[in-house]
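Database export, one record per block. Field names are fixed; values are copied verbatim from the stored entry.
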Amino acid sequence: MRHTLRNQLEEDGYVVLEDFLRPAECDELRNAGLELTKQALESEDKAVFSTLENNKQQLKDEYFLNSNDKISFFYEAEAVGPDGKLLVDPSISLNKVGHALHLLHPIFRCYTYSDRVKAVCRELGFREPAVVQSMYIYKNPGVGGEVADHQDATYLYSEPVPPIGFWIALEDATVENGCLWMARGSHKSGVHRRLIRNPDKESKQALIYDKGAPFYPQSGFTPVPVSKGTCILIHGHVVHRSAQNKSEKSRHAYTFHVVERQDNTYSPDNWLQEGENAPFQNVYTTPQIL
């Protein structure tokens, strides 16, 4: 089994693990995600999150950079007006919450450092795996925007061992509500560009891309619809995307990224660095309970 999982990830760039969580466990995480939407109302900042090139607000935003060791709220571009007021119901206004749920929120922490996650890390050959970030992604009906073609290592670069994403569907993910699309095998061509901390400290742009956006033919992508409770393991170099949610159903997911710490370098140029409240702790030895 150990070689099978590792070999499949190295061959395809992703692996689908069905029934990773039971339905009741998904519901517990989803209820925690909905509870976060209520907490977001108490937050003054309404930072918009988008991976599309024409919206660079978050690149200039200290709120984004400072979310490395906090539970921070990011809104859908279509949910917030120019005056900062919400245009939709608060319960469907969030794009995501990040980036330290795995350590600071008791429910997400419990599932992140579970025996199941540890077992997968062992099967993948990790010696000292650390979770570096986590996100709750809402993909709400109507406002859940597309996520552009990207590689996770663009944002979380490490070498020689790339990061691995755990993407857990808390609801059925379908083509209609914005499931993931994968470019199978694309991880074999390396990292195509990186988002790095701007060496020009005088610039208003805190983060910059080191190259222009690559062009990926859409014919190379395969939809990966999955049922509630499925975990998709994502190689840090595989190109993937998700479309806008045009359905009437949400597509909640919990995702986190694991990086090898032994004989491996996590780039100091990455936007996300260890924070006081969220050190990069060993998955194998971190307790589930705070």
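Remark 1: The two ends are 32 Å apart (CA to CA).
Remark 2: Helices lie at 2-12, 23-41, 62-65, 101-104, 106-112, 115-123.
End of record.
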